[in-house]
Amino acid sequence: MAKSSFDTITIVPYREAWAAEYRDLVAGLRAAFPAGTRFHHIGSTSVPGLAAKDIIDIQATVASLDDIDLSVLSSLNYIERPGLSDHSPAGRDIPEAELKKRFFRGLTRRVNLHVRVGGAFNQRYPVLCRDYLRAHPVTAASYQVIKERLSGWFPTDANRYYDIKDPMFDIIMDGAEIWAAATGWTVPEGDSGS
User: Fold this and answer.
1) pLDDT tens-digit series, residues 74-110
2) Cα–Cα distance between 143 and 51 in angstroms, integer?
3) Which are the contacts of 26, defined by CB distance < 8 A and separation ≥ 6?
């Protein structure tokens, strides 16, 4: 399989434009989903000040993974990567149904579109992660150092990059769960403007 620009791991400084790009992308994506679909800007580009790959991650929260108009997504130049699911953190027994998703790549602008079912483990995880990093700048800065080093070691090997990054993130999420319980955090209805 040929490598794509998504397979090269390049971390760039935070760009304020990412938030506006997210909002513009969601405005176009709404037509592919039922009314009431919630959208969240997730991933590193959603954390102010955090360096990231220049790929906007969007989560669409739906009642069913079939709640997608594929013709609209195709017209917007999104392609599906079928058969993907999220990983289960080590030491946790997460049912497979809680990890299922549909995943699309935007090819006009580099976008990862994650479609997940509301209330599932994998739907809550990235939003909690984002909000925890926003509230904890030292953790976010340390995470940035790890990503920068990993991208230096594995700039063209996304599998190795994620083999290390994913379990490292599960360690961060232990603290995020404690923070969520202490603050009464819940998944917001959606991001403003989305």
Assistant:
1) 999 999 999 999 999 988 999 999 999 999 999 999 9
2) 9
3) 39, 58, 191, 193, 194
Q: In three state form, how does the secondary structure of the chain look?
A: CCCCCCCCCCCECCCCHHHHHHHHHHHHHHHHCCCCCEEEEECHHHCCCCCECCCEEEEEEECCCCCCCHHHHHHCCEEECCCCECCCCCCCCCCHHHCECEEEEECCCCEEEEEEECCCHHHHHHHHHHHHHHHCHHHHHHHHHHHHHHHHHCCCCHHHHHHHHHHHHHHHHHHHHHHHHHHCCCCCCCCCCC
Contact assessment for residue 79 and residue 104, using Cβ atoms and an 8 Å cutoff: yes
Instruction: Quote the tokens at residue 167.
Output: 């379990």
* End-to-end Cα, the chain, rounded Å: 35
The four Cα atoms 85, 64, 130, 128 give a dihedral, to 10 degrees, of: -100
State the pTM of this model. Answer: 0.93
Strand-pair partners of 111:
56, 106
